Automatic annotation (TrEMBL):
<dbReference type="InterPro" id="IPR036179">
    <property type="entry name" value="Ig-like_dom_sf"/>
</dbReference>
<dbReference type="InterPro" id="IPR003599">
    <property type="entry name" value="Ig_sub"/>
</dbReference>
<feature type="domain" description="Ig-like">
    <location>
        <begin position="1"/>
        <end position="102"/>
    </location>
</feature>
<dbReference type="InterPro" id="IPR007110">
    <property type="entry name" value="Ig-like_dom"/>
</dbReference>
<protein>
    <recommendedName>
        <fullName>Ig-like domain-containing protein</fullName>
    </recommendedName>
</protein>
<dbReference type="InterPro" id="IPR013106">
    <property type="entry name" value="Ig_V-set"/>
</dbReference>
<dbReference type="InterPro" id="IPR013783">
    <property type="entry name" value="Ig-like_fold"/>
</dbReference>
<dbReference type="Pfam" id="PF07686">
    <property type="entry name" value="V-set"/>
</dbReference>
Length: 153
């Protein structure tokens, strides 16, 4: 069963973040496994617990289970933003459950006023935007530190 309980987590770039697996009574222990995925075009496996053992998938970032099977990600960047799923596989007779958590990693934006439009990452957490429009620079950081091509020269 897919639970549609909206959960949004916001964190500043570079921080560690813990994504909760709420809405599921994990303490009852009526499950055989718990897995975390990042949802992109398909599910990317991050980490899975089953039968007292933990399996780490080939995920690009350090991650591990926290308290109550939450997911902890370390030193997050804007690339980590997106939707994550906590999937619970129930024991026989139970019901599988899945809970989505939306993560937004807030980068730092440096603005320089100019009629020359340019934006670029100077490191994983800082986007420098050279443009006279603050709103376009804010939009640029939401789209991966890129200005629309018709605004650049």
């Amino acid at each position: 069963q897919h639970q549609n309980i909206p959960q949004d987590v916001q964190v500043v770039c570079g921080a560690n973040v813990t994504l909760p697996c709420r809405g599921i009574d994990i303490k009852q222990g009526n499950f055989v496994s718990v897995a975390w995925y990042k949802l992109v075009e398909r599910r990317l496996g991050i980490v899975r617990w089953s039968g007292n053992s933990t399996k780490h998938y080939n995920y690009t970032r350090e991650a591990r289970f926290g308290q109550d099977y939450s997911l902890t990600l370390f030193g997050v960047t804007p690339e980590d933003s997106g939707t994550y799923a906590c999937a619970i596989n129930a024991k026989v007779g139970g019901q599988n459950q899945c809970l989505n958590v939306s993560l937004t990693v807030l980068a730092h934006l440096s603005l320089l006023s100019s009629h020359y439009g340019q934006s670029k990452w100077v490191n994983d957490c800082v986007c420098v935007c050279v443009w006279f429009s603050v709103s376009l620079c804010v939009q640029a950081i939401r789209t991966g530190c890129t200005l629309p091509s018709h605004f650049t020269s």
